[in-house]
Amino acid sequence: MRELKFRVWDKVTMKMFKPQAISFDINNSVPFAVSVPGKSWEPVEKFELLQWTGFSDENGIDAYEADLVQISSDIYRIIWNETLATYELEKLGSSLRCNISAITSGSVIGNVFQNGNLNT
After folding, report:
1. In what side-by-side order are the strands of the sheet with 21-24?
2. Residue 26 CB contacts under 8 Å (≥ 6 apart), including other chains
3. Which domains can be identified in the chain, with CATH numbers?
4. What is the pTM assigned to this prediction?
5. What pLDDT score was predicted for residue 1?
6. 3-state secondary structure 75-116
7. Coil, strand or helix at 67
8. Is-contact 20 36, C-beta < 8 A?
9. Residue 120 above 70 pLDDT?
């Protein structure tokens, strides 16, 4: 079975957390509540859920949705391609996309929430 990992961006406190638990609606498999350290269950709408892509960068750092990856002098944002049902790297300032496996030659340098200055 494929390992699933998540982290969450708290839209209110503007902080990233590793969730202690995520509760899903059993009827339609949609998340509805999140528990983070120091807090009890809170509505999922308060958070941006970010899934691990299954890839790590050249330094062994796990790459999640919305992470920023530097490959040579270019910076890419990790996005989910709904049509192809896969993660991709989208070059900032361009519509150019490449395969997520390129992360093995790049480094995670931040994410769009905490490093918005890079997200141009």
Report:
1. 21-24, 31-35, 42-43
2. none
3. 6-118 (2.30.30.290)
4. 0.88
5. 66
6. EEEEEEECCCCEEEEEECCCCCEEEHHHHHHCEEEEECCCCH
7. strand
8. yes
9. no
